[in-house]
Amino acid sequence: MKTWKYLFGFLILATAAIWLAVFLSPDKNLHLVACDVGEGDAILATYKNFQILTDGGPNNKVLDCLAEYLPFWDKEIELVVLTHPDADHYRGLIEVLGRYRVDKFLTNGTEVSTSDYQVLRNWVGSKENIKEGVKIRAGKIRLDTLAPKIITPDKTNENSIVTLLTFGSFKAVLTGDMVPAVGDALAQNWSFGHVNYIKVPHHGSKNGLTENLLKALRPAVGIISVGKNNYGHPAQETLKILSDYDIKILRTDEAGDIEVVSDGSSFWIFH
Amino acid sequence: MFTKKLKKKLLFISLVVLIIFRFFATQPHYLDGQNLRITARVFQEPIRYSFKQSLNLLGLKIYLPLYPEISYGDRVIVEGEVKGGELINAKLISVTENKNWLYSLREKIINFYRSVLPEPHASLVAGIVLGSKSQIPADFWQSLKNSGLAHVVVASGMNVTFVASFLMSFLAVFLPRRRFLLPAFAGIWLYALLAGLDAPIVRAAVMGSLAFLAQRLGKVAAAWRILLISAVGMLLVKPLWLTDLGFYLSFVATGSLILFEKPIRERLAAIPTFFREGLATSLAAQIGVAPILFVTFGQFNIWSPFLNALVLWTVPPVMIIGAIGGLVGLVLPQLGELLLYLVYPLTWWFVTIGRL
């Protein structure tokens, strides 16, 4: 009698798990999520079972975001990009590496000596240093590395990795903490046409976004990944040029996680 | 000379005096501004916040950076300056992992949960099975506190009670009743050690052991007497528990269960058993616990007993499947993974209710 009861419970749970798995399984769209991690960056791109996580934010809040947007059985992240080794970009990655299988870990090659960065360093089995010009393809997703061209020693934001994510005709630029000089240089040689999405550099700092860049990229939406801070992020100047160019501004401190979904031709915003 | 009653009274008074004396005698004395170097083993799981972790060593509260991560059982060396019960400007000199099999078993099982399930599910399972609360995401922890469900995840006596009753029915298959005592003791205390020796766990383990003992000796165990003996015994051994909120909550909750659970259950006869058990238990516990929570935290959720009733039934299956899945996963990761997926529908339900 008791055995039957256990068997019955087991079957119910198995059925429920399968139904949840079916119900929560990914669609055929690209989901680009600016995770609400407070003052910091964590941008998740997910397409079917393929994920790219760009930066991990300053704490373990990124785990909530991954749990929310990945199916529960998927504990593998195909690619992690650390734009540059600042705590508000890498610290959350320590928790990510402890819980997810990360296939590829890209950095700009610079390092810092803080104790928590060393913990991260020990977690990462093999990492690859990349520069401008690297292309990664996975099905319909393409990731082009646009910066850094050269590494400036003893600087951090100057060396931030900048990537262009393409999915069909949908284009998003992920800028990390890119500085104005790099942005202006990118704008000068811009050959990718208009983009749909820009992650506004450096949490909306005035030491980030430039008008030249907006003129060249003409993004439709500007995402500012920002939380409570003492730096005055996002700067009034940045907000002003964004609205001057009629760009829809979305901030993680106001909207929480910001999810942009694209089928490869058009896109929708959820927040 | 003395009547029996008077003897009892005298014994009780002298025990109370002894506890108070021990409390002050064992209080460590630090001077503000004193520089200290503490070498100690961590006997309570450190709490991890967004940007720091906090632990208690020799009665001092210590905040350290999040990394390197300190776990229950580790031996640490910390330096800092004493200021009002806290060690400020604390610096971690070294942390040595405990190589004891019990602690590493605990670590390995928790890590396995984390590698299979997403958050907060992994932490929830780790909390329910092993009483580990250190890694619960801050947001989820807050919503659990708001809804009055946090007790399920922290090391609570409920876990020990489940282990004890599970052991009972398990042992009954192999052994005659009179030979239960040793294996039951071993099981309960092994679990208590695994779960971390927090006051509620120790309380439940002591009471569970006393109940087993009374049964073995053929005595009728008055629940009240066991409760009182456990409290006095624990305070004699560790007077510092006098200042531990968890200690009071645990005893008050158990006391109110003894008093109110049965009458409430009888009055709820109209409600289906499935729902009634959890509702009666949490209503009964709340009678004692709610005022304490309200005075200390200034918050109390009137819906808490109903939310508890909605989720408490998931706890035993999560505990059993989680424990089996965790152990199997150490040997056969793939099979352990499949077993843990069976827990997901239950934790999904728990998380959904917890976030209401």
Automatic annotation (TrEMBL), chain A:
<dbReference type="InterPro" id="IPR035681">
    <property type="entry name" value="ComA-like_MBL"/>
</dbReference>
<dbReference type="InterPro" id="IPR052159">
    <property type="entry name" value="Competence_DNA_uptake"/>
</dbReference>
<dbReference type="InterPro" id="IPR036866">
    <property type="entry name" value="RibonucZ/Hydroxyglut_hydro"/>
</dbReference>
<dbReference type="Pfam" id="PF00753">
    <property type="entry name" value="Lactamase_B"/>
</dbReference>
<protein>
    <recommendedName>
        <fullName>Metallo-beta-lactamase domain-containing protein</fullName>
    </recommendedName>
</protein>
<dbReference type="InterPro" id="IPR001279">
    <property type="entry name" value="Metallo-B-lactamas"/>
</dbReference>
<feature type="domain" description="Metallo-beta-lactamase">
    <location>
        <begin position="40"/>
        <end position="227"/>
    </location>
</feature>
UniProtKB/TrEMBL annotation, chain B:
<feature type="transmembrane region" description="Helical">
    <location>
        <begin position="310"/>
        <end position="332"/>
    </location>
</feature>
<keyword id="KW-1003">Cell membrane</keyword>
<keyword id="KW-1133">Transmembrane helix</keyword>
<protein>
    <recommendedName>
        <fullName>ComEC/Rec2-related protein domain-containing protein</fullName>
    </recommendedName>
</protein>
<feature type="transmembrane region" description="Helical">
    <location>
        <begin position="180"/>
        <end position="197"/>
    </location>
</feature>
<feature type="transmembrane region" description="Helical">
    <location>
        <begin position="338"/>
        <end position="354"/>
    </location>
</feature>
<dbReference type="GO" id="GO:0005886">
    <property type="term" value="C:plasma membrane"/>
</dbReference>
<feature type="transmembrane region" description="Helical">
    <location>
        <begin position="280"/>
        <end position="298"/>
    </location>
</feature>
<feature type="domain" description="ComEC/Rec2-related protein">
    <location>
        <begin position="128"/>
        <end position="352"/>
    </location>
</feature>
<keyword id="KW-0812">Transmembrane</keyword>
<feature type="transmembrane region" description="Helical">
    <location>
        <begin position="149"/>
        <end position="173"/>
    </location>
</feature>
<dbReference type="InterPro" id="IPR004477">
    <property type="entry name" value="ComEC_N"/>
</dbReference>
<dbReference type="Pfam" id="PF03772">
    <property type="entry name" value="Competence"/>
</dbReference>
<dbReference type="InterPro" id="IPR052159">
    <property type="entry name" value="Competence_DNA_uptake"/>
</dbReference>
<feature type="transmembrane region" description="Helical">
    <location>
        <begin position="242"/>
        <end position="260"/>
    </location>
</feature>
<keyword id="KW-0472">Membrane</keyword>
